[in-house]
Amino acid sequence: MTDLLTTLLRRWQLPDGQGAAALQDFARRHGTPLYLYSAPLIERRIGELRAELPAGLALLYAVKANPLPAVVARIAPLVDGCDVTSAAEIALARAAGVAGETLSVAGPGKRDEDLAAAVAAEALVVVESLAEARRLAALANGRRPRVALRVNPPFSLAADAQMGGGPRKFGVDSEDAPAVLGELGRLPLAFEGFHVYAGSRCLDALAIAEAQRATLKLACELAPFAPAPVRVLNLGGGLGIPCFPGETALDLAVVGDALRALSKEAARRLPAARLTLELGRYLVGEAGLYLTRVVERKTSRGRTFLIVDGGAHHHWHATGALEGRRHLHFPITVVGAGRHATERVTLVGPLCAPHDTWAEDIELPVAGPGDLVAVFQSGAYGASASPQAFLGRPPAAELVIDRAAGLPEPLPNT
């Protein structure tokens, strides 16, 4: 058993503790496959993060990570706004009580209706190209939309998903930014600052700190070309959670120390600017469980397969299909079977597709039809990031839970 799985079993009071009985009850009442999101874990994670962040730094929730309305509503009072990408996400955040002026609307390829919704909400629009800025100005109808320029930096974050450096669909290349800033100054737009996102899902605190320092340096170099003082510097996100064997949790204290030092430097070099972080997976990823039930146990040429009722159509990232990680897998356990003998099995979903594989040659407690399987670290990029319509199978149910719902409060993130 890996250190990560041991930690998660303890956190959720599994496999044979009070948590196991509660999960079995949820599965009986709501069926499987089923996503459960722990409100206490979300609240605790945000509290721990807030304790490390420097005063005045704005924390945004990236709605794309988990757009379930009940999740967004729980998070909204705990953050300073939301990162959204479309008219639908703007409406979702506003319905959750998020003030329009605290929304940051980012992402390439925004449609006119997305830009119009951002203008109506008085949100900050992160423009990703000069062409987009011109479309936004044309839609403004006499208003001066608030904008930040997304810059594709000359560096990237050593992470799972590199989103900066080299040719990218994101933002304006840093070498072109001075000319674009000059053009922005000639449009009826209210310039507020910069947005730089170097990479995603990084577990190296020192690498994150270095990328953030480089972002501040880049912003300071571009500030003289800006049509107005820099009031916002969005450092992106990139804080990861461990999902695969051998990974360890991010050292949040190191990130916090670096951000406090960076905040002091920013106050000196960009005195009008407010630093911003936008985080999704880091806030909600560890607070989610995906529950699926074994449908069949079979042997093929000496290899044992457990076929469960959920798969890649519900949890694309966890199956490894998206990243080509068939050799890796999210932490997985059989609920309520901690003292059973174990065996090596291949855990697969029900789809008529070879990539629908949760884990190959994984050691699990011996299980058969009817047994419940839990996939940890499932709070982010799950249902909404998966092809749920594939093969016409029903979508997974999603629930936000707390102690009042019957599940014991998960133990601390240790």
UniProtKB/TrEMBL annotation:
Q: Which UniProt keywords are present, listed alphabetically?
A: Pyridoxal phosphate
Q: Which Pfam families does the record cross-reference, listed alphabetically?
A: Orn_Arg_deC_N
Q: Which cofactor does it need?
A: pyridoxal 5'-phosphate
Keyword Oxidoreductase in annotation? no
Give the matching Gene3D superfamilies: Alanine racemase, Lyase, Ornithine Decarboxylase, Chain A, domain 1
**Domain of life of the organism encoding this protein:** Bacteria
Q: Specify whether Kinase is a keyword of the entry.
A: no
In this chain the Orn/DAP/Arg decarboxylase 2 N-terminal domain maps to 42-284
Q: What is this protein called?
A: Pyridoxal-dependent decarboxylase, exosortase A system-associated
The uppermost taxa in this organism's lineage are:
Bacteria, Pseudomonadati, Pseudomonadota, Betaproteobacteria, Rhodocyclales
